Amino acid sequence: MQCPPCAHPDYILFGKNRGAQRYRCQACRRTFQTLRRGKDPALKEKAQKLYLEGLGLRAIGRILGVHHKTLLLAAASCPSTPSEPTADRGLLLHRS
């Protein structure tokens, strides 16, 4: 393990924060901890895929067990849905 800001390998134990061990870098004197808060990145990826498939945020929340307001933040960072092809791109569209 090394200090995230300066990548120095020397650190000391520096107490606990909500049960998580804190460390202090010997070089830059900053404190850090190894545990990160937040949802699992795989869960976020699943939510983004379901969102791009057209499911609503509340439906995704029920499926994944995540509050819909949390999903709203993830949807803001999600790439927009692919736009429909247009005639400008050389594709011929037929609508019935």
Write a compact overview of the structure shown.
The protein has 3 helices and 3 strands.
What does this structure look like?
This protein has 96 residues and is of the alpha+beta class. The protein has two domains: 1-37; 41-76. The chain is built from three helices and three strands, in the order βββααα. A three-stranded antiparallel beta sheet has the order 1-2-3, with no helix packed on it. A hairpin with a 5-residue loop joins β2 (20-25) and β3. α1 (41-52) packs antiparallel against α2 and α2 (57-64) packs across α3 (68-76). The mean pLDDT is 81.
Low-confidence stretches: none
In spatial order, strands of the major sheet run 1-2-3
Query: How many domains in all?
Result: 2
Order of helices and strands: EEEHHH
Percent of residues in beta strands? 15-25%
Question: Average pLDDT, to the nearest integer?
Answer: 81
* Total DSSP helices: 3
**What level of helicity do the residues show?**
25-40%
Looking at the structure, what is the overall shape?
A: elongated
Query: Which structural category fits the helices and strands?
Result: alpha+beta
Q: Compute the separation of the termini in Å.
A: 61 Å
CA-atom Rg in angstroms: 22 Å
- The overall strand count is 3
Largest sheet: 3 strands, antiparallel
Write the layout of secondary structure elements.
Blueprint: E1 11-17, E2 20-25, E3 31-33, H1 41-52, H2 57-64, H3 68-76
Antiparallel strand pairs: 1-2, 2-3
Helix pairs in contact: 1-2, 2-3
